[in-house]
Structure formats: structure tokens, C-alpha cells
Recover the amino acids of this structure.
């Protein structure tokens, strides 16, 4: 991606083309935000059905190891005292609003990008914890939750790399160039880590 607007602060090499433009970042946020919002709405629907009928079998209950219902019944599904779904109900529409703003050409201030960085890092850290609980503690996978993981990984990678390149996150020039060039490697490695952990810890989940 090339630059279409000046950055919040001077890059390490002012003459270098920008890989992360506002519109390019907005497109990434639109895609990942839409995926996360879709998964959240599906989870919310299943959660409401369970509230109405405790015997409800969710659409993603494939076997004992691939079951949204089993995950929803765990205490981890309400980590902060309310269903985790509500975090996504609020968070992903906000991401979509930011995406539309960027695609519409609105310039966001530096502090806004800083706040977005905090938000995606929280989402990423929470998803890492939920992944570890699902694989190593609950021993069951929620396909809709995994869609959320799949959305949050590139969302975090892109926002972080963009903020590094534009100077919102102050890092040395050499590291800045590495992150701007190789952010996608971190994203791929995270996907591989999730897949390998499932294959090793929950091979039963792969047999239908």
C-alpha cells in the first residue's frame, strides 16, 4: 500500500512510500470487523436461544469437542461477569464505524489511533486467553468464537504495523522497517500456532 495522506509523526525515512494508508487500513478493518460482527451476531443468537431453552442444541454443536454450547456453559464464557459476546456486540460495530470513516476520507487524530491500538491489543490478548482456555482447559472448540479469533489476528497485526509505520508507536527505525515489511509473517505464524495447538491437543475435533 502507498501513502495517500501524511502521517501523525515523521517516519524513519520521510522519502519512503507508505505501506499503510488510511484507506488501505480502513479496508482491512472493514473486512475483519464484518467477520467479527457476523460471528458475534451468530453467537448472540445461540446465546439467546439457550436462555430461552436450556435444552437448545446450537447450530455449531458438531461433536463433544466442537460445540458452541459446551463453551458457552463454561465460566470462561462470562469472564467479566457478563457474557463475553457483549464485548463483541459493542466492539465490532465500532471497528466498522472507524473503517467507514477511513474509507470516506476522514482523517483520524493521533490520539484516536492510540486508542484503537489499545482496543485491538486488548481484543488480541483476550482472544489469546480464550484460545488457551478452549484448547487446554475446556477441551472444546466454538466455531463462531474461532471466527472471532480469525478476525482479531489480522486486525491487530494491521493496526499495529500501521501505527508503527506512522510513528504512533515509537520504535527504532530498523524495527519500524522490519514490522512494516514483515507484519504478515506474524499473522501467518499466529494462525499456524492455533492450528497446531488444535491438532496436538484436540485431534478428536478434526474427526466428524
Amino acid at each position: 500500500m502507498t501513502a495517500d495522506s501524511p502521517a501523525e509523526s515523521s517516519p524513519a525515512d520521510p522519502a519512503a512510500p507508505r505501506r499503510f494508508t488510511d484507506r488501505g487500513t480502513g479496508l482491512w478493518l472493514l473486512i475483519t470487523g464484518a467477520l467479527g460482527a457476523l460471528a458475534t451476531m451468530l453467537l448472540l443468537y445461540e446465546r439467546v436461544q439457550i436462555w430461552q431453552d436450556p435444552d437448545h442444541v446450537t447450530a455449531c454443536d458438531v461433536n463433544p469437542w466442537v460445540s458452541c454450547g459446551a463453551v458457552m456453559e463454561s465460566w470462561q464464557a462470562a469472564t467479566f461477569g457478563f457474557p463475553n459476546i457483549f464485548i463483541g456486540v459493542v466492539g465490532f460495530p465500532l471497528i466498522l464505524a472507524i473503517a467507514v470513516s477511513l474509507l470516506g476520507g476522514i482523517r483520524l487524530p493521533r490520539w484516536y489511533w492510540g486508542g484503537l491500538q489499545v482496543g485491538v491489543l486488548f481484543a488480541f490478548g483476550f482472544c489469546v486467553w480464550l484460545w488457551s482456555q478452549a484448547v487446554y482447559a475446556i477441551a472444546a472448540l466454538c466455531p463462531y468464537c474461532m471466527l472471532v479469533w480469525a478476525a482479531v489476528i489480522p486486525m491487530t497485526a494491521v493496526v499495529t504495523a500501521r501505527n508503527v509505520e506512522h510513528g504512533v508507536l515509537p520504535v527504532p527505525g530498523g524495527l519500524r522497517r522490519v514490522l512494516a515489511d514483515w507484519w504478515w509473517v506474524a499473522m501467518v505464524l499466529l494462525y499456524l500456532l492455533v492450528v497446531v495447538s488444535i491438532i496436538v491437543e484436540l485431534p478428536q475435533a478434526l474427526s466428524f
